[in-house]
Amino acid sequence: MTIPNITLRDGTTIPQLGFGIWNVPPETTANVVSNALQTGYRLIDGAYIYRNEQGLGEGIRASGIPRGEVYITTKVWNKDHGKDNTRISVKRSLKTIGVDQLDLVLIHWPVPSQDLYVETWQTLIKLRDEGLIKSIGVSNFNEDHLDRIIRETGETPVVNQIEVHPKLQQEHTRFANAKHGILTQAWTPLGKGQSFDADPITTAAKRTGKTPAQVILRWHIQLGHIVFPRSVSPERQAENINIFDFLLTDDEMTAIKSLDIGLRTGPDPSVFKLT
Fold first, then answer.
1. Binding site residues, as ranges?
2. Helix (H) / strand (E) containing 221
């Protein structure tokens, strides 16, 4: 299974479909990651706060896939904002995973209440320029957060990772991303299954012979999103990657668009401040 790569605004490339390890138990992460890589995934989306980065590194090494073929993402958590803490966070992830360079590092949340996300972004720029990171981006940033870091630093993120699924399509933020040449990454891309039984999804699934999950992932791909579903099941991992042999019609894409009701499964970035 060949997963297409997308070129980011800094000239690097990223697999459009990856594998997420949020909520994967630390004791099983190595096996789960190794199996995902052997199944064909090449992007692993992690974060230090997930507490399983050691297993991420072990899984890459156990898979037999060369490090240069695996795209690793991690994130700077809320309590690690600021010049010194950000540098400590990135170096900690490098050591925990066991690599010399990270492919992509994101600010996990803006946490506007502590007002350190610009300083954190400035530090990521320096760490990238020092060669510890290839690309830098953000996660859960609203338009005002994006505008501010770009205005104050002159540096635009390559991606903005936000919650997107059929019942929360975030068209405004996706438009803001596109305006700046920022690619949208979708977390919780299946929306915890809450639209699996919706008519536009089941109708498309019946026509294509695919599952509701495959239809939704294909919808993301056709919108140009970078997407990384998560499953500890080898069978589900194989199912989720098998989405490049069919297309949704324009009518089906329009019908899925109608499912948007603004239903968040996670926090609102404008107020979230958990440390």
1. 108
2. helix 212-223
